[in-house]
Amino acid sequence: MSVIRGWCPTAHRPMEAGDGLIVRVRPRLARVTRTQVLGLCAAAASYGNGHIDLTNRANLQIRGVPESQWPALIERLCALELVDPDPALEARHAVLVAPDWRAGDDTHRIATELAARLAEFPDLPGKFGFAIDTDAAPVLQDDPADIRLERDVTGGVILRADGRARGVSIPVDDAVSALLALAEWFVASGGRAAGRIARHAAALPAWADQDALPAPAGPPLGDTGSTLGPVHGVAFGRIEADALAALMTPSATGLRVTPWRRLIVEGGAPSPRSEPPGLDVDACVGAPSCPQATVETRTLACRLAPHVEGRLHVSGCAKGCARARPADVVLTGRDSLFDVAFDARADAVPELVGLDAAHILAHFGAS
Ligand code: SF4
């Protein structure tokens, strides 16, 4: 039986996994400086299992931290200014930022103001978050956030509640205040019980319930690259700390962290595009790292991916940590075997049940 938790781990509130604690760092403005990258890599090697995970909320995680080492790790992360020493403030940094921003543009200005005003926000549920996505075209529309600031079809900035097709036009200078007002409405109208704004049944306040249409999504970073520096793909979102540190070539000034398993090496030396297998396949860590898993996930995912049409999700259990949305093919581990569903989430009622890896491979013509 999987355990569904309504919160995400933070550095101050780590989650226990089979291989130790998971300690999450939330890069401010989707950016980590060169010094912070090198310090984080050293910390992952000293206190964790030597890997760093890149999450679908553009966070960086150190895994495998023994409880006895956690206080020293927190101290190191606070010294690097990767974590706020105040746990309450750290918990509020649930902000996705379009990673390709430039100094002084709207995304940079809004995200900077929001970071400075987070203490004004009410206490929000653990998975509640914001997206600042005001480049020329939105790029975060498929990524998890409850309240979004993005471009509309006329080029203006709109505020939009997740789950609603339209939003309200907002002057850029008022954007953070509007975000705060909608977050306050969410709490005052009983939204905490629903957890997420898309599940909150109350009608939006009239001022936020307008008909500004978001602009069509921009092209994915994997197709366009970035003028900030080379884009480095991270298979399954996991990279060894040494490999991450090696991205900091002499000219690199830092990393931009994305929710798409890709890192932009700011100022990095030009390099061939890195798009490893496993980049567009979803598979959680599975067994033996996660205590809720009874199956290995990532080796099977790599073998199967070329034989599956569409998006593949291999999940160690029904919780579906690697992908919340439906995938074209989803394998869900249960009692050391897999159930299979199509166009579904990991917790869907399966169409095939109780297959081992060999049967799965044969079913998809991969054996
Ligand atoms: S989905 Fe995977 S990582 Fe998440 S709890 Fe289940 S087995 Fe563990």
Looking at this protein, list some descriptive labels:
single chain; 367 residues; alpha+beta; Sulfite Reductase Hemoprotein, domain 1; 3 domains; five-stranded antiparallel beta sheet; five-stranded mixed beta sheet; binds iron/sulfur cluster
Structure characterization notes:
This protein is α+β, with helices and mostly antiparallel strands. The chain has three domains: 15-85 and 226-266, Sulfite Reductase Hemoprotein,Domain 2 (Sulfite Reductase Hemoprotein, domain 2), CATH 3.90.480.10; 101-208, no CATH class; 282-363, Sulfite Reductase Hemoprotein, domain 1, CATH 3.30.413.10. It has ten helices and 19 strands. It has helices at residues 34-47, 70-79, 87-91, 106-117, 175-188, 191-194, 221-224, 241-246, 298-304, 357-363; strands spanning 15-17, 20-25, 31-33, 51-54, 60-65, 95-97, 130-133, 147-151, 157-161, 168-169, 231-233, 238-240, 254-257, 262-266, 282-283, 312-315, 327-334, 337-344, 352-355. The strands form four sheets. Strands 1-2-5-4-12 form a five-stranded antiparallel β-sheet. Strand 17 (327-334) and strand 18 (337-344) form a beta hairpin. The protein is globular. The two termini are 30 Å apart. It binds iron/sulfur cluster.
